[in-house]
Design brief:
This protein is mostly helical and 193 residues long. It folds into two domains: 108 residues, Orthogonal Bundle (Rna Polymerase Sigma Factor, Chain: A), CATH 1.10.1740; 80 residues, Winged helix-like DNA-binding domain superfamily/Winged helix DNA-binding domain (Arc Repressor Mutant, subunit A, Orthogonal Bundle). Helix content is 76%, strand content 0%.
């Protein structure tokens, strides 16, 4: 690979990737895969899941490369995309583990596959019952992956208020759903919801 790709500025590199330049995309992967891998590993604590997520993130980037010129801070954008991908992967792992746990304890029959849907519906219902501000903070945090600071700026409230709303929202959801799901599993699901 020519030195040109190593010395190219991020904006130009993204523009070249957006135009379908595979060498530029390879350089983008070389520049960011280790940083991204370290970040994802902190979230997943699994080398296997981390590798899968990193590959999925770069595949998504390539498939949506036409949107790259609009990205002003690629590394921050990359972290948001990868965090969302990690959350999805962790949800899948939690669901699989919860299902295996139930099967191993003979708590459901092969015909009863509604457990997962019932539990997720219970959580979604509990979220729907939250007061509007708490619900908005919860959704911005869990679904959008925004930081306390980003949520505070968007909602024009302090980061301490964001933290408090999120804490109260989690407690409310746990209280409402605690009879249907074990507390440990519920906390794990909420962290990655």
């Amino acid at each position: 690979m020519p030195n040109y790709y190593y010395n190219i500025q991020e904006g130009e590199l993204l523009a070249q990737v957006a135009n379908g330049n595979e060498k530029a995309f390879e350089m983008l992967i070389n520049r960011f895969s280790d940083i991204l891998g370290a970040y994802i590993f902190k979230l997943t604590h699994s080398k296997e899941i981390t590798e899968e997520i990193v590959q999925d993130v770069f595949l998504k980037i390539w498939n949506a490369r036409h949107t790259l010129p609009a990205v002003t801070n690629f590394q921050a954008w990359l972290y948001i995309v990868s965090k969302n991908q990690a959350i999805s992967a962790l949800r899948k792992v939690i669901r699989e583990r919860a299902g295996k746990e139930l099967i191993s304890h003979n708590l459901w029959s092969e015909e009863d596959n509604s457990w997962e849907d019932e539990k997720l519906s219970a959580i979604e219902m509990a979220i729907a019952h939250l007061p509007p501000q708490q619900k908005k903070v919860f959704m911005l945090s869990r679904h959008e992956g925004l930081s306390y600071k980003e949520i505070a700026a968007q909602m024009h409230i302090s980061t301490e208020t964001v933290k408090k709303y999120l804490q109260i929202a989690n407690q409310s959801i746990i209280a409402e759903v605690s009879g249907a799901i074990s507390t440990g599993l519920l906390i794990a699901i909420l962290k990655n919801f």
